[in-house]
Amino acid sequence: MTRYADIPKPIRSGVVIVDPERGTPQRIIVLQFNPDTLERSLSPQSAGGSGDAGGGGSGEGDRNEALRLKGPAQETWKFTAEIDATDQLEIAAPDGIHPQLATLEMLVQPTTAKLREAMRLSQKGSIEISPIEMPLTLFTWGSKRVMPVRLTELSINESAFDVNLNPIRASLSIGMKILTVSDLPAGHRGADLYMAHLAQKERLAAAARGGSLGSLGLSGIGAGAAGIPSGRG
């Protein structure tokens, strides 16, 4: 007889709102279903110029910078998440999935309290009002991917409703930017969390098995090595 209790529950991806001062979770948002696909894009922060920018050739300074990086790569994630309460009417009532949607929307909205404070300062004639700071947001995809992020896109497609027109099923396109030490001030808890995330990547890279030159058809690296053209006619 199958022992269903022995089947491990899948780990869910999600978002953790963290108090940047204390480092304590303020709210945890668990995605109902893990996305089927993830689109990740990394753009290296090269120190050198593009070489032919402006029509000119690459200068000596550009050549000296060709293998240098200004900082961590800029990484973005995109995925589609789903919320579905069509078969869980007791969960859907009385507001449908409005609460779940509102929780995600508040990741890109300032609170009314902060807006009122900004309005109060404006009415008092404050010369400069600092932009409203949002809580530290972490995205988690298992234990090996826990990173500070900023949401850059949140597109909601509501596709089913109850008799009161409350949404009960929706698909969300979510885009986010990984925040690095180049984006956060020194000593910020998010910067420390990014460093831990990068250190995890280094450990995983070190665990990968390396290849051999022979598998590439090479006997060595250099102008005289087999398979490497010497440049002579």
From TrEMBL:
Residues 39-65 are annotated as: Disordered. This is Uncharacterized protein. Residues 48-59 have a biased composition (Gly residues).
